[in-house]
Known about the structure:
Largest sheet of chain B: none
Number of helices of chain B: 12
Low-confidence stretches of chain B: 1-12, 313-324
Distance between the termini of chain A: 73 Å
Structural class of chain A: mainly alpha
Shape of chain A: elongated
CATH architecture of chain B: Up-down Bundle
Order of helices and strands of chain B: HHHHHHHHHHHH
Strand order of the largest sheet of chain A: 1-2
Largest sheet of chain A: 2 strands, antiparallel
Radius of gyration of chain A: 22 Å
Strand content of chain A: 5-15%
Strand content of chain B: under 5%
Helix content of chain B: over 70%
Shape of chain B: globular
Distance between the termini of chain B: 81 Å
Radius of gyration of chain B: 25 Å
Mean pLDDT of chain A: 87
CATH class of chain B: Mainly Alpha
Oligomer: heterodimer
Amino acid sequence: MIAPVPPTPAPAPTFPPLTPTVDVNEVYATICTQIIKEQSLIMGTLALEQASHVAGLSVDPVTHDCRITGAGAMIVEQLVNQYRDFFGKAAVEVCREAAARFMNRLPPGGIPTSLQ
Amino acid sequence: MPSTPPNSNVAAAVPRYQFAHGFIFRLITDRLNSVIIRVMSRKTKISTIVASSAVLFVYWLVLAVSHTRYKQINYWWEALLAVAAMYYGYLGMLTARGWSWLKSGVGQSTFFISLGLIMWGLGQAGWTYYVIKDPAQQVPPTHILDVIYSSSIPLWAYGIFKLTRATGARYGIRNTKAKVAVSLLILVMLVFSYYVLVVVARGGNSYFQQPFWTIFFDLGYAIGDFINLTLAAAIFGLSWKYLGGRFKRPILVLLGAFGVIYVADFLFSFYDGKGQYYNGHWTDLIYLLMTAVFGIGLCLLDPARKPAPTPPAAVTGPVVGASL
């Protein structure tokens, strides 16, 4: 007599998470966008030109929307340092002010040193 | 009757030679601009300013040593000062191009400070014209010149104000201590300016017995100087902790220029009030210094850098497996 085959358990249903998870690099990209926009008000197209020197950061020349490939915190840090070369700590303050709104979206320990 | 195209009436109203004129003018100015922008690096522009100022200084020195006064040659020195101021202002305008003209704070600042210098130069040119026309009047009594000269004051004030964000002065003032310090600075500058400009240079309260418009045109410029110097000093103090980087020095030079013009105007008022001023007086040297400092500061703000030399191509051997 053949023993009855027990029914295979159905795979556990997967539900989308209740709160949408945001890619951290997207937050860094938004921070870069905001920083570049604010710096553009001070130094014009030079802000874009300086951003183009940062490896791993690509910027849309019209909308200033950024895309990041690599370590986001490092890229933001490099971007801030580019502007620091122009006006010193004053430029860092502008970056800090621009990024302030997005700091709470970053994981603890993920805030770039110059923006702390 | 010949038929006329609908839109040709406007063109027909303007003689053809005017089009040619405009075209040739645009061709020359555009060409000149592009040549100056391409040929004149920041260093070349500054060297030009230093060299032309040195020539003017030597010219003045010859006049001073030979005790030449009230001669046409003195007035031509004043004319050259006007040309120098306008030329330095023009070089400053070229700097604004590097900062996206009026689309950025530093661009606006550079543009308006340069425009102020050009307006000052125009005022100086008008001054020279009147002095050459009527040498009996060493200080032309027309208010047109006052208006042209004074127009530089709000332009400079706006220009310097636009620097507040780039220098970090806006962040410096968040501190309560800084607010108190700025209030004190304004008070001290007000008392100091009243003392030197009214009591010392203009003989005190009796000065106010003159007609209103005389006081307005005479003191208006001095008050403008006071506002600009106070603004410059406040920015200097508030940005002390923040300003740095490549453009710290040019900004400090520009702020310093406002100190120089304050001194120059004070000395002019002082000697003119005593009836000792003549064209080519040593106080004119301070004006020369002012134009040179403004010009150098503006040119130092030029963000253009020499392109880095192209690195030699790396010698690479044949890539193994590349053909696969």
